[in-house]
Design a protein that fits this description.
single chain, 333 residues, Rossmann fold, Methionyl-tRNA Fmet Formyltransferase, Chain A, domain 2, elongated
Length: 333
C-alpha cells in the first residue's frame, strides 16, 4: 500500500478526532485548511479553530482563508502536491478547482448521516428530532451539490434513547475518524469503490434555529423528549413558567424522559409532583414529560432534584409555550 499525501480541511471539534487519527496513521498530512480565527466565548476574543490549534501544535502548514478558492490559497495547495483531500465539517463552499486539485482528482468527506438522508447543516440534531433510532457516518466524494457525492462506505450506529446532540456528535466524530482511515487505505490500495446516491430519497437537514427549541406541550411527550435532546445542551428545550400575579419565566429542559399516562391527563402544561419516581412531571398532549435536567434564567443546568430545591414552583403554576422568535429577533419562525 502506497503512502498518500493528504490535505485536511476542517474547523470544529467534531473534525479533530479524524485529524488526530490521520496524524497517527500511515499516511502523510502535508497541510491543513481551516476557517479564519473567529471571536469565541463571552469576550468574543479571536482565537484559532479547534482544527487550527492542532495544526499549530504539530507545526504543520496551515491555511486560514476567508475563501478557500482564492488564488493565493489554490497556489499554496498546489505547492503541497496532495494525493487526496479529507474534509470534515470545514464550513465553506469548496469550488471545483480545489475539489479536483489532488492527484486522485477528488476530496472525500465524512458526513454525519446515512446518506442520502439528512443532507445539510444539522444532520445529527435533525435525526434525533425526528425520532430516528439509527444514524452513522457516510464517506463520500465532495461535489458541487451539498452532500450529494458518491458514497464509498457507511458506518452505522444506534442513537441512544437519552443521547443528546452533543454526545452523539462526539461519538460520531470518533466513528468518522475510523471510517476515513479505512477509506484512505482503500484508496491507497486501489480498492475504493463509489456508489452514486439515490437522489429521490434525499432529505434536507436544515440548520437548527431558535424556534426549534420551543416546546409545544400539546405535542406527545415522546416527541418532546426527542426535541429536547436534539437541541441540548444548547440552547435546550424552552418552556414558559406562568403563575398568577407573576411575570412569565423561561425555563430550559436539557435532558428528559417520558411516562405513559395511566389515566386521563390534565391540560398540557399542568405540573405534577405526586409521583414517587419523578420529582416533577408535565402533562402533554400524550403522556407525561419527565425533566431530568433543568435550568432557570442565569443559572446552570441542574439535576431535577437540585433544581427544585433551589427554585420554588408556585402551587398554581403551569408551563406554556414560549413566544416563538420572529425574524426581527434573529430567527426564522
Amino acid at each position: 500500500m502506497r503512502t498518500l499525501r493528504i490535505v485536511f480541511l476542517g474547523t470544529p471539534d467534531i473534525a479533530v478526532p479524524t485529524l488526530e487519527a490521520l496524524l497517527a496513521g500511515p499516511h502523510d498530512v502535508v497541510g491543513i485548511v481551516s476557517q479564519p480565527d473567529r471571536g469565541r466565548g463571552r469576550g468574543r476574543k479571536r482565537s484559532p479553530s479547534p482544527v487550527s490549534e492542532v495544526a499549530l501544535r504539530e507545526d504543520l502548514p496551515l491555511l486560514r482563508p476567508e475563501k478557500v478558492g482564492d488564488p493565493e490559497t489554490v497556489a499554496a495547495l498546489e505547492a503541497l502536491r496532495p494525493d487526496v483531500g479529507v474534509v470534515v465539517a470545514f464550513g465553506q463552499f469548496i469550488p471545483k478547482q480545489v475539489r479536483e486539485l489532488p492527484s486522485e482528482g477528488y476530496l472525500i468527506n465524512a458526513h454525519a448521516s446515512l446518506l442520502p438522508k439528512y443532507r445539510g447543516a444539522a444532520p445529527i440534531a435533525r435525526a434525533i428530532l425526528d425520532g430516528e433510532t439509527e444514524t452513522g457516518i457516510s464517506v463520500m466524494r465532495v461535489e458541487k451539490e451539498m452532500d450529494a457525492g458518491a458514497v464509498a462506505l457507511v458506518a452505522k450506529t444506534p442513537i441512544g434513547e437519552e443521547e443528546n446532540a452533543a454526545e452523539l456528535t462526539e461519538r460520531l466524530g470518533r466513528i468518522a475518524a475510523e471510517a476515513i482511515a479505512l477509506a484512505l487505505d482503500r484508496i491507497a490500495a486501489g480498492e475504493i469503490e463509489w456508489t452514486e446516491q439515490d437522489a429521490s430519497r434525499a432529505t434536507l437537514a436544515a440548520k437548527i434555529e431558535k424556534h426549534d427549541a420551543v416546546l409545544d406541550l400539546r405535542d406527545p411527550a415522546r416527541a418532546l423528549v426527542a426535541r429536547i435532546h436534539a437541541v441540548s445542551p444548547k440552547p435546550g428545550g424552552a418552556v414558559s413558567l406562568e403563575s398568577p400575579g407573576a411575570e412569565p419565566v423561561v425555563l430550559k429542559i436539557s435532558r428528559a424522559t417520558w411516562q405513559a399516562a395511566e389515566s386521563a391527563l390534565p391540560a398540557p402544561g399542568t405540573l405534577d409532583t405526586s409521583d414517587a419516581d419523578a420529582p416533577l412531571r408535565i402533562a402533554t398532549g400524550e403522556g407525561w414529560l419527565v425533566p431530568r435536567v433543568m435550568q432557570r434564567p442565569g443559572g446552570k443546568p441542574l439535576p431535577i432534584a437540585d433544581f427544585l430545591r433551589g427554585f420554588e414552583i408556585p402551587a398554581e403554576a403551569r408551563l406554556a409555550i414560549v413566544p416563538r422568535p420572529t425574524d426581527d429577533q434573529g430567527a426564522t419562525s
